[in-house]
Specification:
The protein is an alpha/beta fold. The chain contains 16 helices and eight strands.
Length: about 400
């Protein structure tokens, strides 16, 4: 059963929780005094995103998908639950997940405070989320808001592929607030022209020019002495946007025919007005060079609804027996089981002893274990080790 819009009292209760999550009233006051960016981020976390979803996104989906009230939705990357709580007001319920335990807990508490009793938010790693998607009894739609830009391309493709496979006839994928990598302006991370096109080392050097205080601090903290770690930091920060390429690879080249939203839908048009120049340039280029591509992929911030062919029947079960393969996703996702970690540590220690003639330090163990995120197998870790071997020798102390 759909929940009701949050009241002022419910907002105040959630505001208290977010204040504690940010470090308490004194810490919040200090951050807000230091920068308007923190003030906007805090207000957005409490009110802004939720109200924006209710005022623009949910009416947009209701118009395009009139039977959304009969659907149960599965959300990947719910954050603190703004989109989860908003969609809970127009559908039967949302089953949401996030890899960040603190954010998932805030999302669950938000749902409880807002009275969204038919919806839940749970912390899980990437592989667990995909397995839960496969195992869920009913998934009538998949939501991904402001999350795909924080994934590696291989992760995006795997998510889209599995979501599409799980959906019943008439099932939907709803994606929003995701920057377009083909756009000349970066509306997400740097908030500057061309910044999303820069390679990691140049993006790091350009970081001082980032106009967002919080993002500039995060870029400054990103490592400078290891290219792969720097790349990983920027990917997780969201510098790398999305484009039509992942959709064609994950679903098919015919995916463009399944998109039921349009380039200038009135409910969401205002989101891209600040970038109209870039929008017009890319739109014209796509028409000339790739006419098969749906015009929605000219939007600087991507908002799209994809609907699977066939008539939607509420309560349709789609059974998926194949679990996520450890061999396939050991590096693509966030697999952290003890056996896998032990296996990686043994391989890493062997590499250090045979090639660098010394034992690895704990910080080095942690780095190489983390590097499995975004890579598809242990052999690729080994290949990468050889590629950066000379840099490691130059940067670290002499052999022990």
């Amino acid at each position: 059963m759909a929940s009701k819009r949050a009241t002022a009292e419910q907002f105040e209760r959630y505001k208290e929780l977010q204040t504690q999550a940010w470090g308490g009233p004194e810490k919040v006051a200090t951050l807000m005094e230091s920068s308007n960016d923190y003030r906007r981020a805090f207000a957005g976390g409490v009110y802004g995103r939720y109200e924006g979803e209710l005022n623009h996104i949910t009416p947009w989906v209701q118009r395009l998908v009139p039977d959304v009230a009969e659907r149960r939705l599965f959300e990947i990357g719910c954050g603190t639950g703004a989109s989860t709580a908003a969609f809970a007001t127009i559908c039967k319920g949302v089953t949401a997940f996030d890899i960040d335990a603190r954010r998932a807990q805030l999302a669950q508490e938000r749902l409880q405070i807002f009275g969204a009793m038919g919806s839940t938010a749970t912390a899980a790693n990437f592989v667990e989320i995909l397995n839960r998607l496969d195992a869920e009894d009913i998934v009538d739609g998949v939501l991904m808001f402001a999350v795909m830009e924080h994934m590696y391309p291989a992760e995006r493709i795997e998510v889209l592929k599995r979501a599409w496979r799980k959906l019943p006839p008439g099932g939907i994928i709803v994606i929003g607030e995701t920057p377009n990598r083909l756009c000349y302006f970066d509306p997400h991370t740097f908030l500057q022209p061309f910044a999303n096109l820069l390679p990691p080392d140049l993006a790091k050097l350009w970081g001082e020019n980032c106009v967002n205080d919080a993002t500039r601090a995060a870029i400054k903290a990103a490592p400078t002495d290891n290219y792969m770690m720097l790349r990983d930091s920027l990917v997780r920060m969201g510098q790398d946007g999305l484009s039509f390429h992942e959709f064609e690879l994950a679903i098919s080249a015919n995916v463009h025919e399944c998109i039921i939203s349009e380039e200038f839908d009135p409910e969401i048009n205002d989101f891209n007005k600040p970038y109209r120049l870039e929008h017009d340039i890319l739109s014209k280029y796509l028409r000339e060079r790739t006419p098969h591509v749906n015009p929605v992929f000219a939007m600087p911030l991507l908002y799209l609804v994809i609907r699977k062919a066939g008539e939607f029947q509420p309560g349709t079960l789609v059974t998926v027996t194949e679990e996520v393969s450890r061999d396939h996703l050991q590096g693509v996702g966030l697999l952290q089981s003890g056996d896998a970690l032990t296996e990686r540590r043994k391989i890493i220690e062997t590499l250090y002893r045979r090639i660098l003639r010394r034992r690895p330090r704990e910080i080095e163990f942690n780095y190489w274990v983390d590097r499995c995120n975004g890579l598809s197998s242990i052999p690729k870790i080994i290949d990468e080790f050889f590629e950066v071997n000379e840099k490691i020798n130059a940067q670290l102390p002499p052999a022990l």
